[in-house]
Design brief:
By secondary structure, this protein is of the alpha+beta class. The protein has 6 helices and 5 strands; from the N terminus they run ααβββαβααβα. The chain has helices at residues 7-23, 27-34, 64-67, 79-86, 92-97, 107-130; strands at 37-43, 47-52, 59-62, 73-78, 102-104.
Length: 137
Amino acid sequence: MAIFGSAEQMYGHFGPYLQALMVDPVIGPKFVAANTSFRVNYTDPDASFVLDATKNPAVVTMGDAALGQPTELVLTMSSDDGHGFWLGKLNIPMAVARRKVKIDGPVTKLLGMLPAIAPAFAEYRKYCEEHPIGVDA
């Protein structure tokens, strides 16, 4: 069974977390320094997020608005793998090799961003403690 029961639950969980990251004084500038945009299409349930780090601060778009937005990179993965990624438990190069994660666009740009994103993993673990999945605020 998937961790998230619906797209709305995913948007309610990931949306505030990602938006907080974009304005975080340490993590936000690391996204902006990457000067890229990427969409993550999640499955089971289906949901889409765009992080546009070509703007300062970076902008998060969700749902249908994210689907229509052009981006430099597109990642596709299950929502469970997305949750695992933000927990710091999903090794992206290995997940790509095993076809758990599909990437369309310059893979090297994404891989180059991963070290800069590392501080976000601890923030996500803390966020999950404060906002358990499946518990409405």
